[in-house]
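During the no-cost extension, the postdoctoral fellow (Dr. R.K.) reprocessed legacy sequence entries with the updated structure-token encoder. One reprocessed record is reproduced below for audit purposes.
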Amino acid sequence: MREEILKTAREKGLLLENEVVDLLESFNDGKRVSEFLQNLVIFSGQRLITRSMLSKNAEYVQKFVRTLDKEGKESFENVSVKLGISLEITKEKVITPGEESMVELAKKRNSSDYQLFYADTKPDKKIEVADFTGYFRSRYQSLQRILIQRAGNANLVAVNKISSDRQNLSIIGMVTEKRMTKNKNLIISFEDLTGKIQTLTKFDKEEVFKKAQELQLDDIVLVKASGNKDILFIQDIIFPDAIIQDKVKFERDMSIAFISDIHVGSKRHLEKGMQRFLDWIKSGDENARKIRYLFIPGDNVDGVGIFPGQEYALKLKSMKEQYAVLASYLRQIPKDITIFMCPGQHDAVRVAEPQPLIDRRYASELYGIENLVLVTNPTLVKLLEGNKEFKVLMYHGASIHHFINEVPELREMKAHKSPAKAVKHMLKRRHLAPMHGNIVYIPYMDVDPLVINEVPDVLCTGEVHRLDIENYNGVLIITGSCWQAQTDFEEKVGNIPDPCKVPVLNLKTRELKIFDFTDEDELKEVENA
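Re-encoded structure tokens follow.
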């Protein structure tokens, strides 16, 4: 077996540390060794395979080992322990109800109903340039793993291994530059962990050219092409994409509801509409009685100092007053409904994403509400029923405006009127805000918390103040309505509000109903004020 491993290494141009050869022998399968090494090189961009290199790429190693049979797993683990190879993986913070954590959560209604998944948002050091490098490297590796699964027999090659001979190949790269030639062809530069290369997409290849036009800086895609190390001619572009094959349905007849952008404290906040919703959800209405979860993805209050001149648009001029009124609303929601609330740009948190929990100093009254669970922006919530998981990804949606402004098809259709079409592009790219500069963010060395690692059943956002529903490859997209009439600031950013609408999704039937709680007299009065 050892000779077979060394022969494979020579054929692939690899250098293996002796201890690594010992580890690979535990596979006891030459084909699996070859597969492991080939994908490891693509994943890491390195051809010197050492113990420390395996530890640094532990996530890939562990994922591969999980494909081995029971005997192979045990053998691999025994050898790795003997050699002192650390395969601990940096993961997103997973918080289950009742678990002690550095992030304080409100008390939970039931310890077996759900799990929360989000990144640790507590900064532990001064940010340096190296953090941005590590952040983009971790993003590349996360999306690279997804794209490798989609690649099939794509003949993947690292950029620095493309020869001077013409060949058909595929690369996984990040877009670093994009420009149009005088002949209206597109030249796009891609970069992986090993190098950079230029590609060309011809204008007369309509389908591929359309995909190339859609690419934005920092997008990470799989490119099928022909050519050599001087230039590649693109044949196809494959996005990471989010796809659900089987839709989860619960046995229990229960529902989840979504509201967003309450904007308590604004002179244009629609108090009567909100109270009509609260009266309904605590009534004996058949649809209201089935609701067990309520998701609120951000901009819960109007905030203070969010934009120039905001003080003239405020009815309540302090954060504490605004959150006190918000708390009075939430206390009216029945205790058997668990509320998940994340922040937005108007809340009492930093603007940079991922955003932490709403600050207790300003919102202390929220922390006393028994059925309210404060979470970060973004957060993945897994609702549980036996072995079934229904996944809801909450994200306030700051990047939606950038998608609409930059993606040609969205810009042309003026997608502020249909914002769910912009959210589709998050799922297509498997990232909530892929373009550098479209949001303010905190770079993390080990993980990019805005990557959509797990495909959700529902992706719900706020931000655009307009209810819109789309289905993308089995994923339900819900962009939330609001509880505020259009402000001058909203008009400037392009929001066209559709207030007081509440979508309710039944988890047994997957039926979606929309309820309208608009008080027309109040809306007219506020708009004319």
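DSSP finds 16 helices and 20 strands in the chain. The two ends are 81 Å apart (CA to CA). The remaining legacy entries will be reprocessed before the final report is submitted.
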